[in-house]
Amino acid sequence: MKNQKNAPKGLGALLNKSDTIIAILLTLIIAFLWFETTKFEKVPALFSNNIPPEMFPQILLIIILGMVLIIPFEHIFLKRNGKNIDSSRKTRVANSTIGTMMILSIIIASSQILGAALTIIAVSILLPIYWGERRLKVLIPYVVGFPLFVIVLFNIILGVHFEPGLLDLIKS
């Protein structure tokens, strides 16, 4: 009886307030990104290979939106399994998570200047060091191997060429 008195009624039973706010913010971001895809240059039909350049990002945005629209209702699915979605939210976000987000945000914000290769290298160096990795036997192969793998995969195998950024200035 007591649990039924404290149980949310109306929209509160259907939508989790925190998750609904997050879903609305994510939906606004998706709408902005969708608008940005409409500004892509149109490719002549001869070179389009059946799909225009904005279609792939828009497909990803639709998939992400589909997942976002589930977020406000997630508590209903978890409640059926006997879990409380809000129980783990009482703990504060770890400082290492906030630091990781800040490092990634700064690196991504400077990616236009750095270029793709230097951005990948910066992430590969800074994050493991921030997370406390000090073993050079692990760090050096990762710092060299991961960026090399990504660059070879995209540039050579897939033929997707990255923006050079500062490397273009060095080459000149």
Number of strands: 0
- Outline type: extended
Q: How many helices does DSSP assign?
A: 10
Cα Rg:
22 Å
What is the arithmetic mean of pLDDT? Answer: 83
The proportion of residues forming helix, as a percent range, comes to: 55-70%
Spatial gap, N to C terminus: 76 Å
Helix-strand pattern, N to C?
Answer: HHHHHHHHHH
The main pleated sheet reads as:
none
The stretches of 5 or more residues where confidence is low (pLDDT under 50) are 1-5
Strand content: under 5%
What is the number of domains?
2
Structural class: mainly alpha
Descriptive terms for the model:
mainly alpha, 172 residues, 66% helix, single chain
Description:
By secondary structure, the protein is an all-alpha fold. The chain has two domains: 2-89, no CATH class; 95-171, no CATH class. Helices cover 66% and strands 0% of the residues. It contains ten helices and no strands. It has helices at residues 2-6, 11-14, 17-37, 55-68, 74-80, 95-109, 111-114, 116-130, 136-157, 166-171. The termini are far apart. 7% of the residues are buried.
Please specify the SSE layout and strand pairing.
Layout: H1 2-6, H2 11-14, H3 17-37, H4 55-68, H5 74-80, H6 95-109, H7 111-114, H8 116-130, H9 136-157, H10 166-171
Helix pairs in contact: 3-4, 6-8, 8-9
Put the structure in a nutshell.
By secondary structure, the chain is mainly alpha-helical. The chain has helices at residues 2-6, 11-14, 17-37, 55-68, 74-80, 95-109, 111-114, 116-130, 136-157, 166-171. It is 66% helix and 0% strand.
